[in-house]
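Risk register update: the risk of archive-format incompatibility is retired. Evidence:
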Amino acid sequence: MISSRPTLKARYVFPVGSDPIPDGEVTIDQGQIVAMGRHMASGEVEDLGNVALLPGLVNAHAHLDLSDLARPLGTPGMPVVEWLRCVINYRLMTPASDHGVTRALEESLRLGTTAVGDISQTEPPAEPLGRLGVDLTSFLELIAPTPERIESQAARAERHVEAARASGLWSAGLSPHAPYSVHPDLLTRTVALSAERHVPLAMHMAESREELELIRHRRGPFREFLERLGAWTSELCPTGIELVDYLRQLALAHRALVIHGNYLDDASIALLAAESERMMVIYCPRTHAYFGHDAYPLEKMLAAGVSVALGTDSRASSPDLSVLAEMRFAARRHPSVARSVILELGTLRAAAALGRAHVLGSLRPGNRADLVAVALSDRDAADPHELLFEGDGDVVAVWCRGVRTEGTANERR
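Archived output:
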């Protein structure tokens, strides 16, 4: 008989935001964490053995609808503009369906992710959300480089916000795609809607040097790309506007996620640090590496006080949707960043980016009982985080809303 208040014990419990607890225990009741510590329970305890028990991982940026892809599009190191052509061709050849999103939600949960910020084309499917319990923020992607598309995109945004409220299964976000694909008037209206309806906003920015060339000089591969698509207008990327000017506009939103931020300049970093309560940069380590970008300025941003979180991006540029793999990759790429901070980037800070840190991203009484157990090696370490990030242990168990799920990544190998 399973206890109505199960207590889980692990070699290490990682609360996030405080030190790991050796031989730690977490007690769950009615989908919430009610206690945490050592030697707490007087009744039966489920000893999970040599594992790290973490809060459910949080993926702050994904494109779940591209999850039917078996491998990334294009080739490593290719220009972002050329890769975008691959994405457009894939979408044109692939009928829209809920299959990719459903598959992605199932994969995410198997890999220990219990909350996702997804850039979506349509409303998310209700069935997998109701069945799996993943906490989903659906950022509707808005693309309107020319004035003719502004009204239809603005209407889509309004409908998306209303649909989320009616559903109750997911939360709404808005995603004006990028400076090169969104008319300034639509951006203004989307930021205003975000502020008015208290929904987060996400925008791809400073992703490539070619994007910065378009913003600063109105020329280069991106302009040629847009002209061939019939999507260039003299009103796009107005003369005299710098990257930091776009960020000042995003600062007027309820909450703003700057996706990628690979090439943020000093003025932009200073602004993001000053607005760190409401503006976050989402770093996608393996996608960053796929394109061969310059070294990511993670250390510089953290030192300045910028809020940073992790995302997986999509299977179009990354091998899978594992936040744990992203954290481990980031730990290798940024050895000077404390491992406790790396863990926060994929948990508490990612939850904060989605406006969910009050219930997700850490283990503390009152939080939702989303947990993930990760196998550890038998060796000892002065810092238990080393066991988590320097090993390759699998996710061996996941709890979502207090219910243990079936089919972990380890079980499906």
